Amino acid sequence: MATLLRGVLRPLCAFPGSPGPPAGVPFRAVSHGAGLLYPEHIPTSLLQKVLLAAGSAGMALYDPYRHDMVAVLGETTGRRTLKVLRDQMKRDPEGAQILQERPRISLSTLDMGKLRSLPEGSFGCAYLHFLDVNVASGHGMTVCTEDFIRCWNTRVSPDTRAPTRFVDDEELAYVIQRYREIHDMLHTLLGMPTNILGEIVVKWFEAVQTGLPMCVLSALFGPIRLNAQSLQLLISELIPWAVENGRRAPCVLNVYYERRWEQPLQALRQELGITEPPLRVEGLV
Questions:
Q1: Neighbours of 112 (CB within 10 A)
Q2: Model-level pTM?
Q3: In terms of C-beta density within 10 A (0-12 exposed, 13-18 middle, 19 or more buried), how is residue 33 classed?
Q4: How far apart are alpha carbons 284 and 141 in whole angstroms?
Q5: What is the DSSP string of 96-152?
Q6: pLDDT tens digits for 190-201?
């Protein structure tokens, strides 16, 4: 059994330190080698996926800083949910265009000059402010989620996303990659910082929106690390707000954020049915 596990998990040995493909490279249904559907794809059997899911779940709970393990957990447990999300995108004109064009979000694809020229109050200006604050301060978190699991002194950027590896469908692989890459946009829309409380609130919103098992587990187990005051605020005010907004908003994967930079932030929130948070969570952990 130990030999089998070593064989199954061997591809992960290079995962934490191995570079992924350039973030600006789109997923395409072309051959990338024997059995490979996209760059960095690692084909796996059902048994291997089960073992990967169990192993990555245990490791992520043991060491919350292993964002690579949480990414593996999301990829090996979310296939059915990813199909639902993909179908939602196909039924929506804007979502279908995203699936067709496969835009990527990274420092190499973002026009920082354009973002800096946008007026105060625009979505692009708010997103740039979010990046400036978090890249400069290096905020991170200590909760099991593949989004922004970082040490407090680690700088963050749109390029700090794990590449998809274990999804055996090129289109679904793009869906989960897109989900990861719009995470910062959701922080901007929800007005949530990247401290532990803000990340948990975003995870509750994402869990309701996507139904991905990894999001649900993160939302449920993340609060374990909160102090009593923050836990009370989370349960009494922030979770109900996140759940209500997650249910009311249309699928956030159907928004072509890169083409909404000039739109006023409040107008985009109104379009998506997202209300202001009930309280500010900066400084609360």
A1: 10
A2: 0.81
A3: exposed
A4: 12
A5: HHHHHH----STTTS-HHHHHHSPTTBHHHHHHHHHHHHHHH-----SS-SSS---T
A6: 999 988 899 999
